[in-house]
Fold:
Amino acid sequence: MKKKVFRTLALVMSMLMLVGIVASCAGGGGSGDVAEITYMFWGDENEVREVQEMLDAFNEAHPHIHVTAWPVDRAEIATILTNLAASGELPDTGFMTEPLTIGWAQAGFIEAPTFTGETPRDVISFRWDGQKVAYSSCVVQLAMYYDIDRFDGAGVAYPPKTGATAWDWDAFVNAAKSLTFDVNGNNAHSADFDRNSVEQYGFYLEPAVWQLEAWTLSNGGGFFNPNDWSDVIINSAASAEAIQRIADLHLVHGVMPRYGTWPADSIDTWFLEENVAMAINGTWSIGVWMSPARDNHGLNYSVGVLPSMGRAVTMATAGLAVQYAGSKHPEAAAEFLAWYVQNSGHLIEIGIWMPRYQSMFTDESKMDWAKTEAYPSFDDFRPAVIDYSVNNAVSAAWHWVPNMEPFLDELASALAPVWSGEQTAQEALDAAKPALERAIKG
Structure:
């Protein structure tokens, strides 16, 4: 079954953070009282094995603590946690998806984190009732990827690298048309363009409805009133126009296949097999797909900033590991989670995570993490991702709004007829607003 991107990212982070950790941990022995704690996670057979290797490494290096793996079915995580909370048997620690975090913090089941050094960036904080209740394990954000060779072949200027110079929507559509070709070599500007026989599309974007918030914000709207999360504004004229513009990339301009028709978790195939010239996806794609596509298949790519509908913006978020309330060994749980984050450097080096500390985005002496072979040219990456993150990144709604999972499910259903052209975005969102309001209020 196709997974939503935020679910996939949770799995990827849970799995790939393990690579290289075992080799870096020193062994240890000792005796005495041992704090027994648990770590809940989800994944396939390989992930279960790799998580166990991670825990073995931690346990060997920390003889006063023993962490036991607790694998569960991701699809059932909300039900599992609800039942465990009711019986007072929550795990000590565990992975948590972004849409569930505020609700569980709101209910008092997540311990607020404490820090002895630099606090993670505000943009990845989860906020409730004026308090920071959790932080993502890293920073990831939306970025524009483009095939340099396809741009050069079409004689199109590369996507801008700063928020101040971001394409406006008309300029973006114009570029996408110049990069879209039918089987006869006509681009989408041509009167002879055959949109039913497209050889190369100019653009595609990740079909995950949570990411649509970035476009609504860019156009002066949003999903929610920023001063009142219970006030759903996704059907405002600005928000509906933004979503209609995304749909019209296929319906009107012919520069993108219908939203949701390409597989979500394979941006590399969009470039290598589907012949797309540019695409928007999260920065995790650098390590998961883009770097391997470059190294193994010769994809000549780089990064730029997202087009702007008025406000240059990108969406920042990431999954997280949390300490659950009620642990018999809270100090041991906190020590394990601190180790979990501190030993994630390999994930940053290979381009899946970005650091979660502001100084590593503003102090060039701390930016060596972005100069490894995994990343695009630093001359492109720094302005288009690092500086853009500092100046233009906003938190995804689930960082401050509860009940996002049912809200997003309702939104995906509501927008299906928009992508097919059966309804306008305004019509669909107006009709769906009562259901969206019920979903967000739980």
